[in-house]
Amino acid sequence: xxxxxxxxxxxxxxxxxxxxxxxxxxxxxxxxxxxxxxxxxxxxxxxxxxxxxxxxxxxxxxxxxxxxxxxxxxxxxxxxxxxxxxxxxxxxxxxxx
Length: 97
What we know:
The chain is 77% helix and 0% strand. By secondary structure, the protein is an all-alpha fold.
């Protein structure tokens, strides 16, 4: 069985990889995938440290939130691609306040 320290180290690497991707990329789809990597890293961290049923129920709740996030992001992606013909973040003037 894999030790908790190794799983936590993998979770930290995934978290910083996702953060780096969000800060450096301009494509909407890649930014969304990096945010999903961050959510998966936090879920993996909870899984490594879980000992009881409450922790597992929190992990399931986190997966449900991730699915809802995916549905919203995909619908926004389809809308932006349909109306603007691009997914580059810098090209979206309509999204600015």
